[in-house]
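As the next step, I wrote out a protein sequence along with its fold in token form, included below for the reader:
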Amino acid sequence: MIIKEVTRILEELAPLAYAEDFDNVGLLVGNTNTEVSGILVTLDTLESVVDEAIANDCNLIVSFHPIIFSGLKKLTGASYVERIVIKAIRHNIAIYSMHTALDNCAKGVNAKICEVLGLTNCKILIPRKGSIKKLTTYVPNSDVENLKDALFESGAGNIGNYSHCSFTVKGTGSYRAGQDANPTKGKIGETHHEEEVQINITYAKSLEPKVLQTLFQNHPYEEVAYEVVTLENTNQNLGMGMVGELPQALDELEFLESVKKKMGALGVRHSELLGKKVKKIAVLGGSGAFAISAAKAAGADVFITSDIKYHQFYQAESKMIIADIGHYETEQFTKNLLVDYLTKKIPNFAIRLSESKTNPVKYL
């Protein structure tokens, strides 16, 4: 396999179009046409991880966090980031990052936390807006079903648990072909009227290149009239964080102790206990203070995340418990998720789970 074949598989799980605007995802180091000798999956790309890749003949590192985040203006080896990039280039090792593309994925970071904690009935905590597109086009009556079937095959028309969704309106289209035109119907220089159907169909933002290519390849007209708009509708299968339920309610301390054990946390910083049982749990891997209000609005009894500042604990307002278990701790199982996914997709390939300890935070 070559690198772009592997990254295409990864982007089926977490399309890069769903990463946050501030992020730096995708292939950060390397060439897409390089043949892959082995894949090493890690949470962070450190020098020890690159050394591990070299030792195990892995020339592609799939990392959750991007080693290049804010950009590099020079490569002198003055910082750990520069040294890592230099070493990777010197040994022909590519680095691919997923980060917030996987955060926003329904089967990504937060789904894995829910799995580890044994939560059920899980839903996206903050569904994303602006990720659904709508295509409108106009086609002769005789070609409607063929075009719709092709668009459905490309992935358009999926809404939640439903597929093959569209809306059509009949009408009359008109056009006059110019001297250099090659009209499918009508004659050059004459105004032609055609009974047409307006097709309206939605699709995921990440599918846009494929959907439009399908439109152009299957539409009968030489010039295709179409419109694309971005919808503000929330996408219930895409977004930050998740909220789910415990199989049965637990005492607060009992639950926090189980979280500490299951997530391998060396400590849990939390807001005041409320003296009641907990059942509904919100989670958000990584820095999740921005989702405190969403967790309260969802009716969560506990919100598990990391990087909570002193004053942000007050935002619990005695309505829920905010539990900070550590940044690394919330995201550590992401690499297991990716190894399992890649192993199922390409079972006869060398895929390794990094053994390097990349958590920069130490405890006494």
